[in-house]
C-alpha cells in the first residue's frame, strides 16, 4: 500500500505524490513565544515529528521547516507586564521550548526561522501584493483585500458572503471590507518597529508564514501542517497572500491535527483550561505523554485526563518490561525488516494517513505474542529467528514513533525520579490550589473556584468548605 494522506483542501484522502520525486518540503506553524508550551502544543509537535520520521523512513529527503513567531501583541504585552525588553521574553520562551521538546524527543527540523529575521522578505511580499492590486496601504498600515482574491474560503469551506455578513465592521471602519486583514501594522509609541515603505511598524501574523515558507521551500511546496484551529483564518490568509502574489498554487497537501480537549472543550490559554508540558512532566515520564498523544488518530480530538495518561504509562511499562527481558538475554537491535509481519502491518497503518492508533494496536498485539512465547519457552525463545525478527521490528516501530529511545534501565531510573519528585511536590501544589480557590470564593469569582475544584478533583483531592475554612482530603 502506498502512502495516502487526508488533504484538508480537498476533504479527502489522496495518494501522496510529492512535487519532486524522492523529496518533500514540509512547513509547520510553530509557536508564539510568550509563554510555556501546553499539551495542545505538544500534540502538534509530536504529530508532525512523527510524520517527519515516517516520511524519512519511506526514503524521502525531507526539508522540514518550523517557525517561531517572535513578535506579536502577546509578546509585547508580557514584556510590558514584566518590565523587560521584548527580546528577553522571546529568548526565555524559545529556550523553554527547546527544553520541553527535547524531553519529548522531538527531532530538530532542518530550518527553524524566526519572524524577526525575515522582515525584508515580508516587506517584499507585501510590495508584490500591492503591485498586483491585492493589498492597499492606509495610514501606515497595509491590508490584504479579500475581495480581490476570489478563491478565499476554499480551505476552510467558509462562504465569503456569510463571513462578510457576520463581520464586525466597527472594529476598523477605515478598511475597504471588514474581512480585510493586516499585512503590516504601524507602530505605536514604545513598541518594537522596523522601517518599511509605509513607515515604521511590524508585520501582521499571517504574512510571516507565507514569507518564511516560500523562502525555504519555494512558491509551491508539498505539505503545510498545523493545528485545526489554524485552518481559519491563519492558513486561509496564507493561501490568499501567497497565491495572490505568485499566481501559483501554494501547498499541495494541507494536514491538520485535532484539538486536545478537557471536559469536551478545546485546551487553550484563552479558556484557562490548559496544562503546560512542564505541569505534566512533573508527574509523568515524557514518553508517557508522547505515547498518550499517539493513541488517537492525529486528525481527531483527544480527551485529556489523568486516567488516560495512567493507561499510557501502563502500556509503556509493558513494552519496556519486554525490552528489559530481551536485553538481559540478548540485546535487541531495531530492524525494520520488510519480512517482519509487524513491520508490514505497522507500515500499512501508517500509510493510511499516519494512523498511529492502529499502528500501536499492532505493536501491542505483537507484544502479547512475544510475551506468550517468552512464557512458554523461556530464554531459549530468543534463539528462534522469528521471535528475534519480531522483537527487533517492535523496537524499530517504536523508534519510528519517537518511543523507546532510552535503554530500559535509563527509562526506569528516570521514571522513578519523576515519581519521587511528584510525591514531594503533591502537598505543596494541592495547598496552593486550595488557597487560590479560597481567594476566588472570597472574591465571589465562582467560575474560577469551580474550575479549581475540578482540577483538584482530577488530582484525587476532595475539598470541603467549613465555617472555619476549607479542608481537603485525598479520595
Note down, in words, how this protein is organized.
The chain has 475 residues and is an alpha/beta fold. 49% of the residues lie in helices and 15% in strands. The strands form five sheets. It has a four-stranded parallel beta sheet with strand order 4-3-9-10, sandwiched between helices. The chain has a four-stranded antiparallel beta sheet with strand order 5-6-7-8. Strands 12-11-13 form a three-stranded mixed beta sheet, with helices on one face. A hairpin with a 2-residue loop joins strand 5 and strand 6. The protein starts with a strand and ends with a strand.
Q: Which helices and strands, and how do they pair?
A:
Layout lengths: L3 E4 L4 E4 L7 E6 L10 H19 L3 E6 L6 H10 L3 H18 L15 H13 L3 E4 L2 E4 L15 H7 L14 E6 L14 E3 L1 H13 L3 E7 L3 H16 L4 E7 L2 E3 L2 E2 L10 H5 L4 H9 L7 E2 L2 H24 L11 H11 L4 H22 L7 H16 L7 H35 L3 H13 L2 E6 L2 E6 L1
Parallel strand pairs: 3-4, 3-9, 9-10, 11-13
Antiparallel strand pairs: 1-2, 5-6, 6-7, 7-8, 11-12, 14-15
Helix pairs in contact: 2-3, 4-6, 4-7, 6-7, 9-10, 10-12, 11-12, 11-13, 12-13, 14-15
Mean pLDDT: 91
According to CATH, the homologous superfamily of the largest domain is HUPs
Q: What percentage of amino acids are in beta strands?
A: 5-15%
CATH class of the largest domain: Alpha Beta
Number of domains: 3
Amino acid at each position: 500500500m502506498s502512502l495516502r494522506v487526508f488533504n484538508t483542501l480537498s476533504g479527502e484522502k489522496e495518494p501522496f505524490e510529492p512535487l519532486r520525486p524522492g523529496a518533500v518540503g514540509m512547513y509547520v506553524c510553530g509557536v508564539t513565544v510568550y509563554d510555556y508550551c501546553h499539551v495542545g502544543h505538544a500534540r502538534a509537535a509530536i504529530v508532525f515529528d512523527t510524520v517527519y520520521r515516517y516520511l524519512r523512513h519511506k526514503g524521502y529527503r525531507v526539508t522540514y521547516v518550523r517557525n517561531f513567531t517572535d513578535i506579536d501583541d502577546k509578546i509585547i504585552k508580557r514584556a510590558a507586564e514584566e518590565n523587560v525588553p521584548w527580546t528577553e521574553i522571546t529568548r526565555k520562551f524559545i529556550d523553554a521550548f527547546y527544553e520541553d521538546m527535547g524531553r519529548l524527543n522531538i527531532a530538530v527540523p532542518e530550518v527553524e526561522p524566526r519572524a524577526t529575521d525575515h522582515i525584508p522578505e515580508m516587506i517584499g511580499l507585501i510590495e508584490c501584493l500591492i503591485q498586483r492590486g491585492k493589498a492597499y496601504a492606509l495610514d501606515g498600515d497595509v491590508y490584504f483585500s479579500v475581495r480581490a482574491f476570489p478563491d478565499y474560503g476554499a480551505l476552510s469551506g467558509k462562504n465569503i458572503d456569510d463571513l462578510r455578513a457576520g463581520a464586525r465592521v466597527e472594529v476598523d471602519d477605515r478598511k475597504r471590507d471588514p474581512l480585510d486583514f493586516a499585512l503590516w501594522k504601524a507602530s505605536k509609541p514604545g513598541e518594537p518597529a522596523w522601517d518599511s515603505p509605509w513607515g515604521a511598524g511590524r508585520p501582521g501574523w499571517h504574512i510571516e508564514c507565507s514569507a518564511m515558507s516560500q523562502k525555504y521551500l519555494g512558491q509551491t511546496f508539498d505539505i503545510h501542517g498545523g493545528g485545526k484551529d489554524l485552518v481559519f483564518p491563519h492558513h486561509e490568509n496564507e493561501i490568499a497572500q501567497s497565491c495572490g502574489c505568485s499566481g501559483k498554487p501554494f501547498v499541495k497537501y494541507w494536514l491538520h491535527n485535532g484539538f486536545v480537549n478537557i471536559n469536551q472543550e478545546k485546551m487553550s490559554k484563552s479558556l484557562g483550561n490548559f496544562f503546560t508540558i512542564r505541569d505534566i512532566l512533573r508527574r509523568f515520564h515524557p514518553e508517557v505523554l508522547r505515547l498518550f498523544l499517539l493513541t488517537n488518530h492525529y486528525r481527531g480530538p483527544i480527551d485529556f485526563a489523568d486516567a488516560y495518561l495512567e493507561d499510557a504509562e501502563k502500556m509503556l511499562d509493558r513494552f519496556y518490561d519486554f525490552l528489559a527481558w530481551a536485553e538481559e538475554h540478548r540485546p535487541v537491535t531495531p530492524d525494520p525488516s520488510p519480512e517482519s509481519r509487524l513491520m508490514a502491518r505497522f507500515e500499512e497503518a501508517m500509510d493510511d494517513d499516519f494512523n498511529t492508533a492502529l499502528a500501536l494496536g499492532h505493536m501491542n498485539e505483537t507484544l502479547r505474542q512475544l510475551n506468550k512465547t517468552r512464557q512458554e519457552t523461556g530464554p531459549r525463545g530468543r534463539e528462534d529467528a522469528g521471535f528475534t525478527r519480531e522483537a527487533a521490528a517492535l523496537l524499530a516501530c517504536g523508534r519510528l514513533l519517537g518511543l523507546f529511545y532510552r535503554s530500559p534501565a535509563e527509562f526506569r531510573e528516570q521514571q522513578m525520579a519523576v515519581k519521587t519528585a511528584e510525591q514531594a511536590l503533591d502537598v505543596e501544589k494541592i495547598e496552593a490550589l486550595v488557597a487560590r480557590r479560597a481567594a476566588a470564593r472570597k472574591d465571589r469569582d465562582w467560575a474560577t473556584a469551580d474550575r479549581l475544584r475540578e482540577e483538584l478533583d482530577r488530582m484525587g483531592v476532595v475539598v470541603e468548605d467549613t465555617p472555619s475554612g476549607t479542608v481537603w482530603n485525598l479520595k
